[in-house]
Structures are given as C-alpha cells and as structure tokens.
From TrEMBL:
One Pfam family matching this protein: FCD
Annotated SMART domains: FCD (SM00895), HTH_GNTR (SM00345)
Keywords assigned: DNA-binding, Transcription, Transcription regulation
InterPro entries according to UniProt: GntR_C, TF_FadR/GntR_C, Tscrpt_reg_HTH_GntR, WH-like_DNA-bd_sf, WH_DNA-bd_sf
Domain of life: Bacteria
Name of the protein in its database record: Transcriptional regulator, GntR family
Source taxonomy: Bacteria, Pseudomonadati, Pseudomonadota, Betaproteobacteria, Burkholderiales
Gene Ontology MF term list: DNA binding; DNA-binding transcription factor activity
HTH gntR-type domain location: 17-87
UniProt organism field: Paraburkholderia phenazinium
Length: 281
C-alpha cells in the first residue's frame, strides 16, 4: 500500500522509531521469550547494554518507557534494575479515559455494556465461589444494609463504593481473565468517572442503596444455591434498573481528564472518598 502511494506521487511519511523505543520492544520480546512473570527481574543494565550494543542512557530511556507503560518497575542502587510487574488497573483506566475523553460516552453507554457483560460474569463465577467469597459478598451487603444518615455524604458514598465492590468479588471468582478484566475496568470507571451533584437528595441515595441491597441479597442466595440461570436473570434485572436510579440521582460522567495524582489519591482514600466519587450499580 505504501509502495502504491509512492508510485502515485503521494508523499508518504515513514516514521522511524527512536533507538530507545526499539530497545524497549526488544526487552518486551525478551520478557516473552524467557516467559518472565511479575516479580522476575530483568538482566542488569550493564548486561542489557552488552546484549543490545547500546549506551547506558539508551537502556535507561527504554526501561523508563516500559515503566511508564506499567510493564516493569525500575529501582536504583546496587541491586537496582528492572522488575516485571502486572500492569495495574489504574494505569489501564488512565489510558482508556484519555481515549474516551474525546468520545461522547454516556452513562447509558456504560450500562448497555454492563448489561451484556455482568450477567455472564456473575453466572460464570457461580461454580467457583468459595465460602470465603460468600462471606465477602455478605459483608459488602451488610455494609450497605444500614442507615447512612448521620454519617454525611462520605457515609453514603462509601456504601455506593461497596455496591461496586460486590461486583468485584464476583469478578474475581470468574475464571475468564478477559471477561474479568473488562468488568473490573468498567467498575473502576464507575468509581472514578461518575459523580453526583451536591444537591442530590439524600433520599435518592438511600432509595438506590435499598434497591442494591435487595438485588444483591437475591443474587447471593441464588449463587449459594448454585442456580446459574437465576443469577444471570437477576443480574440482567439489576443492570436494567441501575441506570434509572443513577439518572434520578443526577449522576454524570466527569468532563475532564483524570490526573495520575488524582488516581493515586483515590486509591489511598477509597474508604473515605470525597463527594466526586462513584455511583454504581
């Protein structure tokens, strides 16, 4: 295709990769070929220099690029170097949100996808749920099954966070890694990208919470009975009803990019999230 355009006299720009980028690609190849796992260390800088016949600065730029991508963690000192890490969910969310910033994504869009994925996620998790999982599900429900009045907005939003956590527990039990990742990513979007107006009546939050508690209890009972089809049916109902509550609560997507510092702050203070936090389910 490029050759055809060149023959036609159309200017074709061929982008040349910088040397650090090429080395970063080679290090990715090394990780794959050696089947390195999170926690495994890369060869030392001096070894990488010799392996790729490049300068120390080139190696360091390549490692920094991979660190920014979330693939490795670089430490300094005598025993420093690169270590393979699992790409964190918040880094993936940041990249996705950067992309969605230029798209017209609505709450209805998010819940349309959830309605397709969450029932299959929950149904697939049922055979794999352990007693420990059920204890966690019931603890999440118990957190929301008590009046939040008297604890201010923070108490209400903590319960909305627990509504999302309920779905994360189900996600963790599902053996399909891609489905699990997709749902966890959406859950994180809900935590970080959906906010409510300050004048949303507390009664609307309570009404939403009560509805969540009711359906979560029903899902948990059906899951304990290992009734896969009932769990799927209940989750469809849940994902159909939830966006109606969100709209009544004047929920909306954030209209600006999330900074890395904001993500880190939210991860540290999730249990006491400020007014701009998630809704959900």
């Amino acid at each position: 295709m490029v050759m055809d355009r060149a023959k036609a006299g159309v200017a074709v720009e061929i982008k040349q990769q910088k040397r650090p980028d090429l080395v970063a690609e080679e290090i990715k190849r090394l990780i794959t070929e050696k089947d390195l796992k999170p926690g495994d260390r890369l060869p030392r800088e001096v070894e990488l220099q010799a392996l790729y016949s490049v300068s120390k600065s080139t190696i360091r730029e390549a490692l920094k690029s991979l660190e920014v991508q979330g693939l490795i963690k670089v430490t300094t000192g005598p025993n420093g170097g690169g270590m393979v890490v699992e790409v964190p969910l918040d880094r993936t969310l940041q990249l996705l949100q950067n992309y969605l910033f230029f798209k017209d994504v609505t709450i209805d869009d998010i819940y349309t996808v959830r309605k397709l994925l969450e029932p299959e996620l929950a149904a697939g998790a049922v055979p794999h749920l352990t007693e420990q999982d059920f204890v966690a599900l019931e603890a999440s429900i118990a957190c929301c099954d008590r009046p939040a009045s008297g604890h201010g907005v923070g108490g209400i939003l903590k319960q909305r966070q627990e509504d999302v956590n309920f779905h994360d527990i189900l996600a963790a039990a599902n053996p399909n890694p891609f489905l699990r990742f997709s749902c966890e990513l959406i859950n994180e979007m809900i935590r970080q990208l959906i906010e409510f107006r300050n004048d949303t009546p507390e009664s609307e939050h309570q009404r939403f919470g009560e509805a969540n508690v009711k359906i979560h209890k029903a899902i948990t009972r059906a899951a304990r009975a290992r009734d896969v089809e009932k769990v799927r049916e209940l989750m469809v109902t849940h994902m159909t009803e939830a966006p109606r509550y969100v709209k009544r609560m004047k929920g909306k997507l954030r209209g600006r990019l999330i900074l890395d510092s904001e993500i880190r702050k939210k991860l540290r203070t999730r249990s006491a999230a400020p007014v701009v936090d998630a809704e959900e389910d």
